[in-house]
Amino acid sequence: MKLYKKETVQHVNASLEECWAFFSSPRNLQKITPETMGFEITDFDNKSMYAGQIIQYKVSPLLGLKLPWVTEITFVKENSYFIDEQRFGPYALWHHKHFFEATENGVKMTDLVHYALPLGFIGRIMNTLIVKNKLKAIFDHRRVMVDQMFNGK
To answer: Matching CDD domains, A to Z (predicted)?
Structure first.
């Protein structure tokens, strides 16, 4: 199984507390996800983020096909970082770390995703042709939305 890495860094014009409040709430994920992903939360306990929390979604990554995606929040250090991992969904492995670091101009936000695809050689071809570009587009969209919400102040 081939493991891939996607890292993005963005500076956010907000306090650490504001940044954490927004990004640690699964309810806000839809606000920064492209509409073309058909993203919707289907089950969530509406509690503040905690280790062990399970969140269920539906996503349409390709051709409008709705797929279930289940993630677990595995680690949380308030105002610092959290990690979500796929438990069921389109990836063979999905491990997403979200880091928040106060700076003199706001917050440095770093996303680090390690992922793998199923289907061996076919998965590697799919990553080259589709998946890595789709992930880039999703994170590019998030950058634009975060800029609009926080950096236009």
So the answer is: SRPBCC_3 (cd07820)
Radius of gyration (C-alpha) of the chain in whole angstroms = 15
Separation between Cα atoms, residue 101 and residue 79, nearest integer Å: 8
Q: What phi, psi does 30 have (nearest 5°)?
A: -60, -30
Residue located via tokens 């998030």: 142
- DSSP output for 122-147: HHHHHIIIIIHHHHHHHHHHHHHHHI
Q: Count CB atoms within 10 A of the CB of residue 118.
A: 12
Alpha-carbon gap, residue 117 to 47, rounded angstroms? 31
d(CA 4, CA 115): 5
pLDDT in tens, 81-107: 999 999 999 999 999 999 999 999 999
Collapsed DSSP state (helix, strand, coil) of residue 111: strand
In angstroms, rounded to a whole number, what is the distance separating the alpha carbons of residues 94 and 92? Answer: 7
What's the token pair of residue 49? 């983020």
Q: Which residues pair with 108 in a beta bridge?
A: 11, 101
pTM of the model: 0.93
> 141: which residues sit within 8 A by CB, 6+ positions away?
32, 33, 34
